[in-house]
Amino acid sequence: MIRVAIVEDDASCAAEIEGYLHKYEGEKGLRMEIDLFTDGDAIVSRYPAAYDILLMDIELPLMSGMEAAEEIRQMDQDVEIIFITNSPHYAIQGYRVRALDYILKPVNYYAFSQTLNRALERKLQKKEHFLVLNVKGGKQRVSIRRIRYVEVQDHDLTFHMEDGNIQARGTIRDVVEELQEEGFFHCNKGYLINLAYVDGINGMDISIGKDKIPVGRTRKKAFMEAMNRFLSEQT
Predict the structure, then answer these.
(1) Residue 133 C-alpha from the chain's centroid
(2) Any idea what the Cα angle at residue 153 is, between residues 149 and 158, rounded to 5°?
(3) At the fourth CATH level, which superfamily is domain 2-126?
(4) pLDDT tens across 31-57, in order?
């Protein structure tokens, strides 16, 4: 299933784009879930951080497509953004939000389908799995492979990422269920670690960079077995 959002205030243009998506579905044998928004503010205010592709007009009535894309990039680093616009002069601004491409109106189906091909190729090349977090003010999608470890205190989770920390709400049980098949190990009741980031173990402490994560006494043997399996799978 490919999730696509169309953000377009012109009803006829939105209908044309949706029709092109259904045509593309039929040609490629794909299934798409398509949502429609009429303004940048509408998608930003309830962004689910779960779209694969955004097809966005730039000139919108309340919040422009460029402004919306900047907000969305704070929540979702991986969605493919394609601008559909009347004017090509916005292209330089698109570097700020890492837009994949610009399609000029009136939309030509061949050019449209070629851009969709590129978007889906990029999604396949990444082959990443994602986790949607409940963060303050909404949701945020993160790449699982960028999570170093997860720390829990009551119902507050701290995701220690490659490039900083993210605070979220939830339980360690929910996270374990999501990540147990992704190379993570539940080393004690307060920590879930990504085995790919383990630098070593000294006594009862697992080293992840400069951080020391305690492993439960009854979990150390299971950790060593999990670590050995993980390393053997990498060779």
Answers:
(1) 10
(2) 35
(3) Response regulator (3.40.50.2300)
(4) 999 999 999 999 999 898 789 999 999
